[in-house]
Design a protein that fits this description.
Length: about 325
């Protein structure tokens, strides 16, 4: 029953957050710095109340241990969210995020000296081909956009290419983060709830560099039309409601993924996360009307299939050892 509740919480939180993020990206694509800042602030406040008890609970990991993790985590999150400001469609964004297994394997092999089975290399090859297929399909869609002039189309395409580069950089940063976190946990022990609080809290001052941009979008959000429930005007700007939904969803997503990791095996976690990505993909295509061609579906099948095969090889190796 507990595992079922964690699975439900993971799906609800992660899909809800992604839906709110896409809705914001459609309406205010330039507000990604405000979005990132808000999620960091929300998780920091939650940790301040529930984890650190207003800093009365001594931290198990020293601040110097958090610094490298904090820097990489902040950089990866900002770059990842900013990619949505460069015309990267959310379906492609979701599929690209599934490529983390590829960059994780590369990082672990060359930075940690780890070895992997042939099945894992084959799985990662499937994921890589799938991402390439989806990216080429999206590039074709971008070039064929007939609703804008040739000059605007060229500018749009160039910005899209920048967005793709940002996604690749974000993937590498995320995978390097996993290596840095692993080294931190080896040295100081695993304290995920504490780490979640301090990593987000220590990143907040860096947002001062984006202060003017964040402030401009705070003004824009405050002047957006008010949110209505069943025809009743709440008087609350609707963009703030969406932003709050994204923050709460992100917090629930992280919280329940941590719980899920402690209650079920790694294959089940991968299945749930893959299902979450697939459902988010369907919402993005059918609810938000994003273009998704047959070529996209083929690429997505390769990515999700490769992810499941990679996780399956992990489980079979553990069973053999037992």
């Amino acid at each position: 029953m507990s595992a079922a509740f964690s699975i439900f919480g993971t799906l609800t939180g992660c899909i809800g957050s992604m839906t709110c993020v896409e809705s914001l990206a459609k309406e205010q694509p330039g507000a990604m710095n405000l979005l990132t800042f808000s999620t960091f602030l929300f998780i920091t406040l939650e940790g301040l109340f529930l984890t650190s008890k207003f800093l009365t609970v001594p931290n198990k990991i020293p601040f110097k241990g958090y610094l490298p993790v904090c820097a990489v985590f902040f950089f990866g999150n900002v770059i990842n969210n900013q990619a949505l400001n460069f015309h990267v469609p959310v379906p492609l964004h979701i599929i690209f995020r599934s490529g983390a297994l590829l960059t994780n394997l590369i990082m672990n092999k060359y930075l940690q000296g780890k070895q992997y089975s042939t099945q894992k290399y084959a799985s990662v090859l499937l994921i890589t081909v799938g991402i390439i297929v989806c990216t080429l399909a999206s590039a074709s869609v971008e070039k064929k956009d007939a609703a804008i002039s040739l000059e605007d189309a060229q500018k749009h395409y160039q910005e899209w290419v920048i967005g793709i580069i940002m996604l690749i950089v974000a993937l590498l940063a995320t995978s390097y983060l996993a290596v840095v976190q692993e080294n931190m946990y080896k040295k100081y022990g695993k304290h995920p709830r504490e780490a979640m609080f301090y990593i987000h809290a220590m990143s907040l001052p860096i947002f001062a560099l984006m202060g003017s941009d964040i402030y401009n979008y705070i003004i824009k959000f405050s002047y957006s039309h008010s949110y209505s429930i069943l025809g009743i005007d709440t008087g609350i700007p609707h963009l703030w409601i969406k932003l709050l939904g994204a923050c709460i969803g992100q917090w629930l997503c992280i919280l329940f993924v941590y719980r899920l990791n402690s209650e079920v095996d790694s294959l089940t976690v991968t299945l749930v996360v893959t299902l979450r990505k697939f459902l988010s993909l369907l919402i993005s295509i059918f609810w938000f009307g994003n273009v998704f061609t047959t070529q996209h579906w083929i690429g997505a099948a390769l990515v999700f299939g490769g992810t499941l095969a990679f996780s399956r090889s992990d489980t079979s190796q553990k069973q053999k050892k037992q």
